Structures
1.
Amino acid sequence: MNHKPSRTILFLAPLLVLMYLTPKVEEHFKSEDAVVKEEIPSWSELLEEEEDSVGVVEPLTIDTIIDSIDTLIIDINRFSPSYATHNASTLPDSLKLKGSEIAFNGLYGFFENLENIHESDSLPLEVFHWGDSQIEGDRISGVLRSSWQKTWGGSGPGLIPAIQPIPSLSVRQEHSGNMTRYTRFGRLDSTLTHSAYGPMATFCTVKGEGQTIVNTHPSGFKLNKVWQRVKFYISGAPLGGNITLTGNKTPYKAFNIRPAKSGNHQEIEAKLHEGETSISIGFEGYNLEVTGIELGSNTGVQLHNIPMRGSAGMLFTKLDAGHFQKSMNGRKIGLLILQFGGNVVPYIKDKASAERYAHRFSKQLEYLKSIVPNAAIIVIGPSDMGAVGFYPMLAEVVESLEIAALETDCLFWDLRRAMGGEGSMMVWSEEEPKLASPDLVHFTPKGARIVGEKFDMSIRAEYKSWVEWRH
Amino acid sequence: MFTRPAFWTFLLVVMVGLSFLQKKVALRNAFLFAASMFFYWNTSAWFVGLLLFSTVSDWGIGLLMNKSDGVKRKALLITSLFINLGLLCYFKYAYFFADASADLFGTTWEAVVPGAAWLNENLGTSIRVHDILLPVGISFYTFQTLSYTIDLYNKKITPVKSLLDFGCYVTFFPQLVAGPIIRAIEFIPQLNKPYDLKPKEFKHAIWWILAGLTKKIVFADYIATNLVDRVFANPSSHSGFEVLLGLYGYSLQVFADFSGYSDVAIGVALLMGFRLPINFRSPYKARNVGEFWKRWHISLSTWLRDYLYIPMGGNRSASLFTSIFSFSLVVFASLALKNMGVFLVGTGILLIAWAISVIYPSWGVKAATYMNLFATMVIGGLWHGASWNFLLWGALNGLGLMVFKFSRSYIPWGQIEKWWARGIGVILTFNFITFCRIWFRAGSGTGWETVPGDHNILTEWFTANDLVYQLFKHFNDIPIFEVIQGHGLVLGVMALGFTTHLCPEKLSNKIIEKFTSMHTISLWVITGVLLLILWKVGASAPQPFIYFQF
């Protein structure tokens, strides 16, 4: 006996009705209580968030976002990026820096320093970009560094750790020997008896011998591959030690490390041969503490990418103050960029806790100001995260961080708004090629590039206005 | 596509049509052809014209070929190859060839839409001159029509007289977009028979559909969203162990996705009374690379074997194509590496190989077999996508096949029918196939392909580069236990997927037997419940991101 098509229809049709109806039934019930099951917001909280978010962000349509992204793609071989057409008054509101007059004066001071860069300088103008995992792999920082070094000179990636667990586009790095990494962010090692981590909030110990090999990254920015000199930063060296340096082109060099306790700061500098692309650094000593390696130039801009996975940016005051101060002294620091907040978003349940976080964050800003009083500080708020409504307190966190920045006379740049406001992360993740990772939190390299360019656009708009005003 | 209710509504309408036309073969075929064209129109809009052109041209050439002999017959074959491969090359490979030519020879050719610039200038249209869109399913239906023409040329089949019947064969909607690639010799005879489906076959069709949907929604989509895409989007933010899990996850995902699609296609076709060939036969049970390719995407593997590998000489001899391919390989390598020495050494090796094959013909046959295998796999790699990554992926698989063929003569343990020998073979094969997929996946979308900066080579390489780097240099950066804890749910789904996949055939046959012996009402209830579960899984929010401390 044959199975007639009509029997198949009878079988399939009710199932199809079921498939059409189920989402509608689910939707009906979801509007009442199912949101609770989605882990975070209650219904009332969701409503509150929606009301509060009005005015904080300017949701753009998908087309608008994509259009604005398209216009940002630049020819990176040019010294002046094509997007640098705005001044502060013509810049879209979503990209504008916010801050008090004092804060902007700080930024103008940075511009003054940029203008005064000369080839004969012995120190580069430094920018520290601290952030969470959003800037890992030299993302965002790399775009800024490349852009600024092309305009104002300088080369090299700046500070890198002796052990780099997260590959970066700035350099290729390997290590071997008896080396251990310690960080002030994430899980702490309770056996450590000090907190002299240095400006990277990480250091590595060498017990006996260790080696770090640094190569230029084949797909890195051109200027990242130009190294004029290398510096080694050592904190503790109970019995002293040695550093050896060899390169593809640089002849063998050796340096002594003088005995010092943890918390001291030693700086050893070596010139590198022109066109150097690979260096091998040998460390030798008993419990040597290496707080960083710096590859760069004597002049121009040096921008340090310092990602701290999982950090909310509350660790600066927990670093050994004396050591931190010593590490920052002797540098010509023009700008500090702090990009945090994303890590606290899943844990913030109400406005009050968002404000508490921001209040604590403002203490960090004040502390940094006391350490580097002449540098401008820009706080970059967290990006949009998750699907709409998944992180209901995100808007509060952004807003509170903005208040904290403004109250401490720092500048604030609203990344979430710059990328399109609420729901934009979903749009970025659906764009082809993808601009955001499927976790709806992190940018892809392409997305990070766009963020870097948008931020650069804002800085350059202020710079342009400042130049116009000055002349 | 199969996960959207719109498709099932469409199928329901088709089934209504079939219920009226089930005994009127010609009308049924015409109806199915029209339905398939409508289906393709909905997925590809105006490219339906291209599909129609391919269909009509091959049908016409087939009729003419039947009346021709000698040179004219050959000319018709060449015409068909030229049309089909020409269209495929233009739509799929234009960018790749232009870029490759620029990289290797420094040319400045650009891939453009012919006539678009003229139309824009003279008629004020705004066609994007450089946007060549890829028609959906072109790789599949091109191979399908090619097999028809080549089989006709070799007189293995007779031409299809009715354009509507031929159209139904080329455009048969359940498999049009992603296979299985069906041969005329298998399908055309079915078009001449009235609708025929036994009750047990109907239940089997439902089994195929449910199995396919489960693979797609539970295993493919869930694992992709919650693990694989994350790892491939930012390889450098994951430890080597996470990358390894991501790769294993991808192996399961790509199998579940593709075989899931094939399963549903087979089930849907069976509901309409047509039998499509099985496309996957538990490929990860393979104990060597050769066996893997007999189990994976079988319709493509056998196509490549019958229409490429064997005509190229197969395991008998080297053909002119083998020689051209070998020499092209040497030229390509020397151009890519910009090293004349590579050219000289490569040419030298080829000449020595040729000399040895003249003196020792049996060695020559072996060498030719290896080269034919390698060439088939490289071309098979490019069939999957137009990029260097796919080419490398194909080449790696070709090397794997060569090594396997070479080693089996000297290492007899491959023939041992002991569980441990099979186990070792399965593990080695799976890991080799998975490792090669680094280049396959890195070339198929997300990742570093748009990495900023001053790139001077194809950036897709860097995703693969980063994955390998993490795998070998940063394997333990995050404690393994922490990673397992953090990804518990998705790893559980993966474990379930692999367990199901490795389930012995006897057991799965028993389960299918039970399923197909069920009363229709019980079947309906089970189907309904499973669909609800699948819908729920499909609609679930992605797992939140996990922070691991490096």
Note: Chain A has a mean pLDDT of 84.
2.
Amino acid sequence: MNKPTPLQIEQLEWIIITSNNAEEVFKKLEEQGIDPVLFGLTDKDFQLLAKNFARIRNHLKVTNDLLDKYKEYYEPEKKENVKDGE
Amino acid sequence: MGFRLFFIGIFISALLGAGGYIFKLQKDNTILKANAIKMESAITEQQELITKQKEDFQEILAANKKMNELVNVLKKDLEDLDKRFNKNNRDFGKLALEKTGAIERIINKGGDAASRCIEIASGAELTEQEINATKKSEINRECPSIANPNYVPY
């Protein structure tokens, strides 16, 4: 059984808008030909998003390691062959 | 004459009976030997099975221990993230208001690092740079426990 291909995450850019820079930010977006629309989060929700992201990452790591252990148990010869081939 | 024939008959019958009996004993003996071999084989198989089960149990215990250690270090990464947001009653929103550009750079850098953590958690190979990182300035601060195996927190 082959392991799932590791994820490749697209990079994205965070823009901070405050009551002071909102006009400037939207103007910059328009100058760059980007729709002057932003999907916002409060600082508290940003923290929650970061923590949720970390929780998902931790869960993914545990599940992936568990899969490695099962592979090690059920496919030991295959693993040895891979090591030999290295 | 008749008397002699009678004894010869009895002798031949006894001889045939004894031969048949010996033949039956030999047959029984063969069956018993085969059974004994099967029993020995079954006992050996059972012993091998028990040994394998003991080994499996030890392996499961070791794997569980390792998994618990992993869960704990991942939990610590999460706590560190929380501390970074709220260290010394830090108001992240107020900071972003005062130092918008700087915080924007920090969260973009953190976002990239967090994305890399997801890739590693899903099974991506570590780079040489990640493996060799030992200083705070070199590590992935979002998940040093899985991204930088040679980093010892100081």
Note: The two ends of chain B are 118 Å apart (CA to CA).
